[in-house]
Amino acid sequence: MADRVEKENATTTVFYDGSCPLCTREIAFYRKHVGAGDLRWVDVSEDGQDRLPHGLSRERAMARFHVSSGGEIVSGARAFAVMWSALSRFRWLGRAALLTPVTPLLEGAYRLFLPLRPWLQRRFSRS
User: Fold this and answer.
1) Is there a contact between 108 and 11 (Cβ–Cβ < 8 Å)?
2) Burial (0-12, 13-18, 19+ Cβ within 10 Å), 50
3) What digits encode the pLDDT tens for the residues 101-122?
4) Domain boundaries, the chain
5) Under a CB-based contact definition with an 8 Å cutoff, are residues 49 and 58 in contact?
6) SS3 for 123?
7) pLDDT at position 125 over 80
8) Composition of the chain by helix, strand, coil, percent to 5
9) DSSP 114
């Protein structure tokens, strides 16, 4: 909790599962890049419901990646695209991922990944 960046006036908020070793590594990777300081990072595994926007429960936020930007809450592949768009190094990827034909393909891949996540979490927690 001590390393959490608080950016109360951020227009983009990333909600992630800090109890997931895989998720924690991935978020740590993104937080090292230019633009990450302009985002608000919320670990939903330790923060109370009061840190979540209306309409997003802790259970939903723990089960699937969510990002809030411009008053809209998005999840899955679209959430990654929005986060990438806010990071200089990944901006091109975010823009490409938000293209109409690309987003559904990435969402399909994300949905295939979700059932594997518990196995991957166990695997990463051992390393």
Assistant:
1) no
2) exposed
3) 999 999 999 999 999 888 887 8
4) 12-126
5) yes
6) helix
7) no
8) 55, 15, 30
9) G
Question: Does residue 79 or residue 6 have the better pLDDT?
Answer: 79
pTM of the model: 0.85
pLDDT, tens digit, for every residue of 8-37?
556 899 999 998 888 899 999 999 999 999
Whole-angstrom distance, CA of residue 127 vs CA of residue 11 = 35
pLDDT at 51: 80
Residue 2 is encoded by which pair of tokens?
């001590």
The terminus-to-terminus CA distance of the chain in angstroms comes to: 22
Split at pLDDT 50, 70, 90, the class of 6 is very low
Tokens of 64: 């699937």
Q: How many CB atoms lie within 10 A of CB 2?
A: 3
In DSSP terms, 42 is beta-bridged to 15
Interatomic CA distance for residues 18 and 38, integer angstroms = 19
Q: Give 103's contacts (C-beta < 8 A, 6+ positions apart).
A: 77, 78, 81, 97
> Which residue has 């699937």 as its token pair?
64
